[in-house]
Design brief:
mainly beta, seven-stranded mixed β-sheet, elongated
């Protein structure tokens, strides 16, 4: 089995910063693209940022220049550094990854989700 576990959410004032982490565990052969999504109340899932194994990144226009996605391939972990937070960033943030299961050789490749972590930006 493969599991994604997030941490780092919370309450922060506008202009503040938070760092989210997402650690993948289980029988992992390799991890391809890793992503962060968010869902605000009454809104659809929104792709915030993504990163390839080589470190190429993409961001939604609403977070460019404020958020930074990164990953530690040795630790099977991705991060989302969020600076200059705004009230409209308030949402449940989910990590997501394309993971190939296996030990000595690749087995099944699937898309996996974390359980979500709440980020609230409010004074």
């Amino acid at each position: 089995q493969v599991q994604l576990v997030e941490s780092g959410g919370g309450l922060v004032q506008p202009g503040g910063s938070l760092r989210l982490s997402c650690a993948a565990s289980g029988s992992i052969f390799s991890i391809n693209i890793m992503r962060w999504y968010r869902q605000a109340p009454g809104k659809q899932h929104e792709l915030v940022a993504s990163i390839t194994p080589g470190g190429s990144t993409n961001y939604d226009d609403s977070v460019k220049g404020r958020f930074t996605i990164s990953r530690d391939n040795a630790k099977n972990t991705e991060y989302l550094q969020m600076n200059s937070l705004k009230p409209e960033d308030t949402a449940v943030y989910y990590c997501n990854a394309d993971i190939t299961r296996g030990t000595t050789r690749p087995d099944y490749t699937g898309n996996y989700w974390g359980q979500g972590t709440q980020v609230t930006v409010s004074s």
